[in-house]
Amino acid sequence: MGFQEGIRRHPVIAAVRNEEELKRLENSRPQVCFLLFGDINTLPSMVSQVRRMGKQVYLHLDLAQGFSNDRAALKYIHKEIKPDGVVSTRTHLVRNAREEGLFVIQRLFIPDTMSVETGKHLLKQSKADAVEVMPGIVPDWVYDELRRKRDLPIVAGGLLRQAGDVIQALQNGASAVSVSGGDLWNLDIQMKS
C-alpha cells in the first residue's frame, strides 16, 4: 500500500510526538504515521514497531536527532531504518532523499500570499512526492495553486484542534490532514462527493 492508498483509506495521518502517542497509535484508524521524534538509536525499533501495527511510517528528518543533513544520512535512513518515506522543510534534503529512492513529503509554511508562490517554486525544485501545508487552515485557493502544475497529494497540518477544523481542511482541498495527540485520529469522515 502506498501513501495515496493509505490516506484514501483514512485521511487522518497520526503525527506522533512521543512514546505515549506511539502506544496509542496501535489501536487507531490512521493508516499513515508521521514520526516527529526519535534519534539515530531509537528510530530503527520505532519504525519496526509502527510497521508491525500494519501502518505506514514517515520520518520527519528535521526533528530526528543524530543525523547530519547529507546524503550519507539519507542512505543510512533508507537502508537501515527503512521508513516508507520522509518529511522535511529543507528543499535540498527533499531533492536528495528523492534521488536516494525515498518517498518525500515537503513541508511548507504558508503564512501569506507570497509564501504560496515561494512554495510552488520550492516544489518545482525539490520534485517532492507530496506536500504538507502548515497551518492546516488555509483557503481553498492555496490548494488549487499548489496543484496547478502537478497534482500532488496535499496534507494539511498544524492548528487543527477540532473535528470541524479537519473537515474544513478536507473540504478546502486537502487530500489528508496530519494531527497529533490522538483525539482526532479516529474521526469518522464522511465527505460529500
UniProtKB/TrEMBL annotation:
<keyword id="KW-0319">Glycerol metabolism</keyword>
<dbReference type="InterPro" id="IPR006699">
    <property type="entry name" value="GlpP"/>
</dbReference>
<protein>
    <recommendedName>
        <fullName>Glycerol uptake operon antiterminator regulatory protein</fullName>
    </recommendedName>
</protein>
<keyword id="KW-0694">RNA-binding</keyword>
<keyword id="KW-0805">Transcription regulation</keyword>
<dbReference type="InterPro" id="IPR013785">
    <property type="entry name" value="Aldolase_TIM"/>
</dbReference>
<dbReference type="Pfam" id="PF04309">
    <property type="entry name" value="G3P_antiterm"/>
</dbReference>
<keyword id="KW-0804">Transcription</keyword>
<comment type="function">
    <text>Regulates expression of the glpD operon. In the presence of glycerol 3-phosphate (G3P) causes antitermination of transcription of glpD at the inverted repeat of the leader region to enhance its transcription. Binds and stabilizes glpD leader mRNA.</text>
</comment>
